[in-house]
Specification:
Layout: H1 3-29, E1 35-36, H2 37-46, H3 53-63, E2 66-69, E3 73-76, H4 98-113
Antiparallel strand pairs: 1-3, 2-3
Length: 116
């Protein structure tokens, strides 16, 4: 194998890794715990990475970004929290209206500037 072929293969694999991580983030962010391999393969094909399901499973296992990859489904490794879907609200913490606070502070500053 020539050096240029090795470099081309490494560049392709790096680009594929970026595309896989991006697509995984999109799927996990939409609250999916398992992803259809065919659906994921189609999404990668839209990014320009055409491969069979077996090639995709082998690549995902080599990248170690999934906990389980089969021809039928992909289970991402770990959980990427989606704060927009599941906002963490502390029930003990009172809600603060920042605009009211700013208005009160501005009114107080104006009153301090007025002659008495």
């Amino acid at each position: 194998m020539k050096v240029s072929e090795v470099l081309l293969f490494e560049a392709y694999f790096d680009d594929l890794r970026v595309a896989v991580l991006d697509r995984l983030a999109q799927f996990v962010g939409s609250d999916n715990t398992e992803i259809s391999t065919e659906e994921f393969r189609t999404a990668l094909a839209q990014d320009g990475f055409l491969m069979s399901a077996d090639e995709l499973v082998a690549a995902l296992n080599d990248m170690q970004v999934v906990s389980n990859a089969t021809v039928d489904s992909i289970t991402p490794a770990g959980n990427i929290p989606n704060d927009m879907v599941d906002p963490e609200v502390d029930p003990e913490e009172p809600e603060v209206d920042v605009s009211d606070m700013a208005g009160d502070q501005a009114l107080s500053a104006v009153k301090d500037q007025l002659p008495t």
